[in-house]
Amino acid sequence: MERSRPTADRNVLIAPSVMCADLLDLGSDIDELVDLSVDWLHLDIMDAHYVPNLTLGTDLCRLLGARYALPLDMHLMVDDPDQWGPLFASIAGSAAGGGYVTIHPETTWHPARTLAAISDSGGKPGIAVDPAADIDRFRNLLPLCDLVLVMSVNPGYAGQKLLPWTLDTVRDAARLRTELGLDYRIEIDGNVSWQNIPKMVEAGADVLVAGTSSLFDPALARDEAATRMRSLLRR
């Protein structure tokens, strides 16, 4: 399994949330994001069962993977990751930039087997940690992961407020990465705002899912928002 870069050589990456883009003009919107040199494309896959929302799907992920050379960051908020994980992993495997497939480990009886199936099918596996969860509960899964996604809001909708204790979850993910000698990336998703970005990076996040609170801020042009976001990362 290909692993991420070592921690000491890791820059903070920007992963725009496709759910927050202009879905009526999605190609042009993502073209602009690519021109602004974003790093990943974050895709929220929701099944209206695990979370009360229904978004995106396989056809869109496949088209994006064929058109753009950016890694697809596919977050499966579904109640049957054993069915969907390998399918999205196969899309990652054929995508120009490869991709990550992240599951909520509590949604399957045997998450280690699910993560292995994702890896075998061509994706880079990851786990998502809900706000109420203790990451130490999942420490035995961490060696199987290329990505740990910390949810800083309850999963399902954009526009929520940060749950402040989730920054401690980011710190715990960084601590465990060091303790266990691992090199997974730590991603944070939820209210990644101008005010919260410095706190998230300080806690140890090295991938930021950018949504309506920053990169898709309706008060700013997209290039202005990207410049402001990068200025916060440089600090």
Comma- or semicolon-separated keywords:
alpha/beta; 9-stranded mixed β-sheet; 7 helices; 9 strands; 235 residues; TIM Barrel
Account of the protein in words:
There is one protein chain. The chain is an alpha/beta fold and 235 residues long. The protein has a single domain (7-234), classed as TIM Barrel (Alpha-Beta Barrel), CATH 3.20.20.70. It is 33% helix and 19% strand. The chain has 7 helices and 9 strands; from the N terminus they run βαββαβαβαββαβαβα. The chain has helices at residues 26-35, 58-67, 81-94, 111-120, 166-179, 197-203, 222-234, and strands at 13-16, 41-47, 54-55, 72-77, 99-103, 124-129, 147-151, 185-189, 207-210. The chain has a 9-stranded mixed beta sheet. β4 (72-77), α3 and β5 form a beta-alpha-beta unit. It is globular, with a radius of gyration of 16 Å. The termini are far apart.
* SS class: alpha/beta
The overall pLDDT, averaged over residues, is: 92
Q: Based on Cα principal axes, name the global outline.
A: globular
Number of helices: 7
Q: Which CATH architecture is right?
A: Alpha-Beta Barrel
Rg over CA atoms, rounded to whole Å, is 16 Å
Order of helices and strands: EHEEHEHEHEEHEHEH
The CATH class label is Alpha Beta
Provide the fold topology.
Blueprint: E1 13-16, H1 26-35, E2 41-47, E3 54-55, H2 58-67, E4 72-77, H3 81-94, E5 99-103, H4 111-120, E6 124-129, E7 147-151, H5 166-179, E8 185-189, H6 197-203, E9 207-210, H7 222-234
Parallel strand pairs: 1-9, 2-4, 4-5, 5-6, 6-7, 7-8, 8-9
Antiparallel strand pairs: 2-3
What does this entry show, briefly?
This protein has helices at residues 26-35, 58-67, 81-94, 111-120, 166-179, 197-203, 222-234, and strands at residues 13-16, 41-47, 54-55, 72-77, 99-103, 124-129, 147-151, 185-189, 207-210.
